[in-house]
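ok trying again, last paste got cut off:
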Amino acid sequence: MYKFDYKPDRVNEKCRKWDLNIIRDKFGDVSENFIPMWIADMDFKIPTEVEEKFMDAIKRGVFGYTYCYDEFYDAVINWQKDMHNVDVKKEEITLTYGTVSTLHYTVQAFCKEGDSIILNTPVYDPFESCAKKQGVNVISNTLDVIDNRYYINFETLETQIKEHKPKLMMFCTPHNPSGRIWSVEEMSKVARICKDNGVALIADEVHAEHIHYGEFNSILKIEDELLENVILLTSPNKGFNLGGLKTSYSIVRNKELRTIFKNKLQQNSITSPNVFGIIGLITSYNECRDWLKGVNEYIKGNYELLEAWVNKYKNLSMMQMESSYLAWVNISELGMTAKELTDRLAVESGVLLEDGSHFVNDGDDYIRVNLGTQRENVIEALNRMDKFMINFNK
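nice, full thing came through this time. structure:
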């Protein structure tokens, strides 16, 4: 029913991922037949059900101010219960305007200039920039690599928190860039350390809908007493390719924490949703589970192609992509940095990948590959990368 091989016209859509001028500013003198596999934006058409609801809205022809009506809350509550097996109450849910901007408002709400936050690295770069733009310091808790999988060093984490006394911990679950799914036990340990030391825990679950190996554990599954210290940020935007609509939400159990957070949002007039954003969220959550299942199967197929390709080369390795559509490839044995590799691949092969040094710290030996695209693009990119590797290994 859903045609994931279909290629929408992303150039005339004016999206950053496919814009040649933006790409040349970032990667240099790239040819026009490039294959973009960098920014976390999928190339698949949105679910038909969402498209139809958008068309209904267009036919009405009026796009005035709206509000978070009951269907919004019901959709979130039912989704979290059915998909993640957690119970959420209406009063715990707050509309936000995209997770990245919400990270900034969260820092504004709980930190002042000169304070600190802590995060595991490597990690999604806005976790760092949301602090630095507010004059807040960033402490990196380096993830351990054991058997090609990331693990949290809890002893070091606790030591750093006691020493630096951060106000917040930014926690990516599942982990971006590796796709690592954290266990309930791991998240409980993180939450306990934070609670015992007066650190609010901000959990970003935006990649929770693309699961390929294992089972996703929402942070809402940890003990109730620990949840009193947690702010969860999430949305359907990564899952259903709706990022441009800037519609997301938070779930906060603790009333006092929620009040501080909501007051900061209201100070910035974050009160009513994007007309299409709320329609997209409700429709995706209520009607598009078959689309999500189909796109996940398709992405996993792309991942298996990349995995087979990586396994051909002794100087490459890859962490298993347990979630998301973003693969994390170790290139340390190539004898060049991730930036050097991505720059060369872009100019010599037209394959655009994300440089691991962009992920705050500890990512210099990695590249991130976006597999949320048509299989034809993946196959062509791997063929071009084969030619690059053959010449490189001569």
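cool. The mean pLDDT is 96. The CA atoms of residues 38 and 353 lie 4 Å apart.
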